[in-house]
Amino acid sequence: MFDIFEFLKGKSLSTRLVMLVCVIGLVTIGVMMIYASGNPPQTDGQTISACNLWKKQCIFAGLGFIGFIIMNSFHYRRLGGASFWLYMIILLLLFLLVLDKFVNIPFIPVKHGARRWITIGTITQFQPSEFFKIIYIIALSWHLRYRSNFRSFPMLLPLFILTFIPMVLILFEPDLGTVMLMMPVFLSMLFIAGAKVKHLAAIVFLAILAFPILWIGMHDYQRMRVSSVLLQNKVDGSESWFKARAQKHPLLAKALGVSRQRIRNWEMGDGFQLTRSKLAIASGGAYGQGFREGPFIKYKFLPDRHNDFIFALVAHQWGFAGGLLLIGLYALLIACAIDIAAASSDLFASYTAAGIAVLLAIQILANISMTIGLMPITGITLPFVSYGGSSLLVNITAVGLLNNIARRS
After folding, report:
1. Euclidean distance between the first and final Cα of the chain, in Å?
2. Contacts of 20 (CB under 8 A, 6+ apart)
3. Burial classification of residue 342, based on how many CB atoms lie within 10 Å of its CB (0-12 exposed, 13-18 middle, 19 or more buried)
4. 106 C-beta neighbours (distance < 10 Å), count
5. Where are the alpha helices (DSSP H) in 240-309?
6. What is the DSSP string of 8-61?
7. In 172-309, which ranges are continuous DSSP H helix?
8. 3-class DSSP state for residue 345?
9. pTM of this structure
10. pLDDT band per the 50, 70, 90 thresholds, residue 8
11. CB of 247 within 8 A of CB of 260?
């Protein structure tokens, strides 16, 4: 069982304490932002449940820290030995989500046309794709501990299968954000393990060749989210070159898979969230409007502000200084994970720690970038800060695994 004295006597105590302080700080900021997003209730008839989301987030955080303790109650290598079965279980859960498209499964709800959650009981639900992220890293790290498993191109085939099958299942949910995360994690971990650069270049080339097929298979709203990076207005408010040309040339609009009318109405339609997010961030200035202050807090100008766009709330209330504080905590956390990966003499532990660092870094970069229009809006949450039980539970538990590795390797 977990022993606090053993925890204090373990290796890399200073790194582990800094890492824990960063997580607590990030979770605290997240709870404060979620609280501010619903209190006081807005004038548009906001429900009581929306006002109490911060309480649910506190419960999820508590469960996450229980997961942190449980993760430190056994040796981390036991996860490697069980990685095949963990992977198969999560693959089965992902398959059930896709199966619900054809056979009605009562414990799988449909939200906005997506099947991403599995309900337990009457009120509890979890998102298998969130748990898949950490299980995938563990399984991949366990496979990469032998150099012969990835130094030749034919030996990369099992890794392709390990990655490709769940990505397809997740894409059918649909959950484009998770799919876009896994390929960079896959390539980064191969690079860290020492795979040949020419093999990685070949994988990237094949992915580029497959992109048109992926593009055709996307829903209209998914293609529009990708295109929105090019359709957004310039800094001075004038239309972008791409948007102006798409309205004049039918072939370009057809390539996007949407009508020219939809492109013309982009700001009040598909681009509404992105436009409002950038306004919320810009209005924060250097030090922000103040906690629970400002028009983007008092009025529902920004949809999903407690979830995917919570960084915009941080910048709106606390300005550039608040955004810098948040990014600084993330940088310290990732630096700790990298230090743990570099200090470990166990390849499995080192690759797992590096994989978690890469996963967190990509999620942070993707979420912040999409709120300011540098990347497509894909539904990727901001780790430890965005509202979401599965995401928070998995991320805190992943930090628990980092702590376990630092203590024992």
Report:
1. 18
2. 399, 403
3. exposed
4. 7
5. 241-248, 250-256, 260-264, 272-283, 295-298
6. HHSS-HHHHHHHHHHHHHHHHHHHHHHHHHHSSPPTTT--HHHHTHHHHHHHHH
7. 176-193, 197-217, 220-231, 241-248, 250-256, 260-264, 272-283, 295-298
8. coil
9. 0.89
10. low
11. yes
